[in-house]
Amino acid sequence: MKIKEEISLKPYNTFNISANARYYTELESTENIYEFIHEKKFQNIPQLILGGGSNILLTGNFDGIVLKNQLMGVRLIQETPEHYFIKASAGENWHRFVLYCIENNYAGLENLSLIPGCVGASPMQNIGAYGVEVKDLIHEVETIHLGSGQTQVFDNPSCKFDYRSSVFKTSYKNQFIITSVIFKLNKKPNYTITYGSIEEELDKMGIKELSIRAISDAVCRIRKSKLPNPSEIGNAGSFFKNPVVPIKIAEELKEHYPDIPIYTVNPTNCKLAAGWLIEKCGWKGKTIKNCGVHTKQALVLVNYGNASGKDILELANRIIASVKDTFHVELEKEVNII
Ligand SMILES: Cc1cc2nc3c(=O)[nH]c(=O)nc-3n(C[C@H](O)[C@H](O)[C@H](O)COP(=O)(O)OP(=O)(O)OC[C@H]3O[C@@H](n4cnc5c(N)ncnc54)[C@H](O)[C@@H]3O)c2cc1C
User: Is the pTM of this model over 0.70?
Assistant: First the structure.
């Protein structure tokens, strides 16, 4: 395990923020993790586990140690008449893993194509897109406790998955390093194409026979047309979660704003579209200093050049205050503020 000092984190975060880490190390094996845990020097300083850096905002230098997860490997570990159980190490690139599953006819992850980042972060916020959440495909999450060095396997219910949340983002935040994820994928595909413009895109592509590859291709085409590519404009995808509110509040808002999009979550709650609320407050396309709200998608904050993490955080807080003033609804940040 090599420890580097005063490393620039700019290449390691998709917001493209300039910030340094006091210490930095790459964990390539579980032995590296145990070695790190036994190194007393690093036990009482802040620790940041890093995957692809596509869901973090660095608001300054990190005065601790960054643990870059580089654990690699994917393999089929079990098969039943209906399912494949695939174990993927945490450092594997998410989209490459999805493509590998498609090539092998392991169905289920196709709607989650082209999400940046690593496998190990996927349970963290229960990634989701185009009507699918990864929680429905995760069987188990393997971890090591950073304090004790004990391995712990979380079955699906123990992960306490919720909308863009899990036990790893809430009560156990920063306590466990996820080393691998075991996915339970389908032999018989169960296509989800009614969400967003997937059907329309499949039509445009001239697809006559549905397949997991066709859905993945359609999702990639839609994402490329709507979302800024982080290698061109720094961003971390949706900066805010869609707020969940009691039905009564949603109905009151509907009286004032008849065109407000509302999605039923359960008999008592509804989800509002954060992007719609932000756009209605006039933020879409606005630029302040070197950052702004994306021109095509108001949920995405972007770094046009040399914005600092603090500039972006300030912009996010102004948006939250503005939405609260107008709609009396509190937006919550989806991105992890470091
Ligand atoms: C253009 C763009 C589009 C996006 N679209 C989507 C989308 O459609 N849906 C969606 O859900 N998200 C989306 N995201 C957000 C992001 O890609 C996902 O949340 C992704 O899972 C983050 O992975 P990462 O490896 O980059 O995590 P990082 O940003 O490196 O880390 C995120 C958090 O997870 C923790 N973490 C990372 N790895 C581990 C580990 N092995 N063990 C324990 N903790 C860990 C980190 O400490 C941090 O708190 C998008 C981002 C971008 C830039």
Answer: yes
